Amino acid sequence: MIRIGIVGIGFMGMIHYLAAQKLKDARVTAISSRDPKKLAGDWRGIHGNFGPPGEKMDLGKVKRYKSLDALLKDPDIDLVDICNPTHVHPKTAIAALQAGKHVLVEKAIALEAKDADAMLAAAKKAGKLLMVAHVLPFVPEYAFATEAVRSGEYGKLLAATFQRVISKPDWSAEIADASKTGGPAVDLHIHDTHFIGLICGVPKQVFSTGVVDKGTVMHLTTQYLYGANGPSVSCTSGALTMKGREFIHGFEMYFEKGTLIFSGITPLKVLTPDGKVTEPKFKGGSDPVTAFIAEIQTAVDAVANHKEPALLSGKLARDALVLCHNECKSVLTGKAVPT
């Protein structure tokens, strides 16, 4: 039985807690929060851009700590699940690793590459796992696309376009604070850079154009330059859409022998050379929490086996962060930036 301690009970901490209720061979044994109401189980003030709203929770069997230090001293925790704001991820993760705990930290791994590097070094020194929770590879449509690339079922990936656009986030003060999240070009777009890195690897260069507000890149369109033999890949991501369409994501992926189309509001479609169009069926339906169950279960299994899973790789998460920063630099300079 892997024992989990969740740090930070905001929207993402709540989603992780709900997902953990359906894990195999694992359970949440402790949480930490600075908010006494949340420690008492009153989560009614929590809400986000997907999933259920917060409610009153029965935390009778869960240890509750006001501070991180107190949670890290608990010997009945194997895995610390970090869901606090991004700007404190490095300090939190390094403290947990030094306390002898394995770590799962929500994306983004950090705001700066140097801090991500320090986290990776701390994990290596402690001999513990540092895993980063980028949920996108566990979303069924993206998992299908990943397997299509890896298996070669439709031949070589020739080109792909990705999209991830939201309205300005307003469900919490911290999520809208670029100093704590990195702004949309990090907090939002890192989903895309992580996934592109996963299926295509790190490009040689990036060239981006975008919209900048008070020094923060709010929206960008990027070409990922892999060279003559690489795929043609682009992505548009940002926080410019109006409330009538709060969130949209999706992709079109063009293989030698097939095309995958997913809009986020219509099912994934597979187009093949014979003219057929099929819609793969996935277990779990449309509940977004299902992907988080798979993600955290992967982390739990990794702790049990003491082996880092590729989909939660700290190095992959670090490279995704660097790509985001390089794209911002490209927006601001108007030039292609080597990676």
What does this molecule look like?
The protein has 339 residues and is an alpha/beta fold. Strand 2, helix 2 and strand 3 form a beta-alpha-beta unit. Helix 5 packs antiparallel against helix 11. The longest helix has 20 residues.
Short synopsis of the structure:
It contains eleven helices and 15 strands. The chain is of the alpha/beta class and 339 residues long.
Architecture blueprint of SSEs:
Layout: E1 2-7, H1 11-20, E2 26-32, H2 36-39, E3 63-65, H3 68-72, E4 79-82, H4 89-98, E5 102-106, H5 113-126, E6 130-133, H6 140-151, E7 157-166, H7 178-181, H8 184-187, H9 190-200, E8 205-213, E9 216-225, E10 232-238, E11 247-255, E12 258-262, E13 269-271, E14 277-278, H10 289-305, H11 314-333, E15 337-338
Parallel strand pairs: 1-2, 1-4, 2-3, 4-5, 5-6, 7-10
Antiparallel strand pairs: 7-11, 8-9, 8-15, 9-10, 11-12, 12-13, 13-14
- The overall average pLDDT, rounded, is 94
The beta-strand count equals 15
Oligomeric nature of the chains: single chain
Estimate nothing, just give the exact number of structural domains. 2
Portion of residues in beta strands equals 25-35%
Helix tally equals 11
CATH topology of the largest domain: Dihydrodipicolinate Reductase, domain 2
Looking at the structure, what is the overall shape? globular
- Helical/strand content category: alpha/beta
The main β sheet shows up as: 9 strands, mixed
Q: Give the CA-CA distance, first to last residue.
A: 41 Å
The topology string of helices and strands comes to EHEHEHEHEHEHEHHHEEEEEEEHHE
The CATH homology group name of the largest domain: Dihydrodipicolinate Reductase, domain 2
Radius of gyration: 20 Å
Task: Give, in spatial order, the strands making up the sheet with the most strands.
Answer: 14-13-12-11-7-10-9-8-15
Helix content: 25-40%
**Assigned CATH architecture of the largest domain:** 2-Layer Sandwich
The top-level CATH class of the largest domain is: Alpha Beta
Low-confidence segments, given as residue ranges, are none
